[in-house]
Amino acid sequence: MALPEIMTGMKVVIKSVFKRKETVAYPEVRRQPFPRFKGRHILDRHPDGLEKCIGCELCAGACPADAIYVVGAQNTPEARFSPGERYAQIYQINYLRCIFCGLCVEACPTEALLMTTEYEISGPSREGLIYTKDQLIIDEPIKRHWKTKREVPATWSLGEDLDRKRGG
Question: What is the mean pLDDT of residues 154-159?
Answer without folding.
Answer: 70
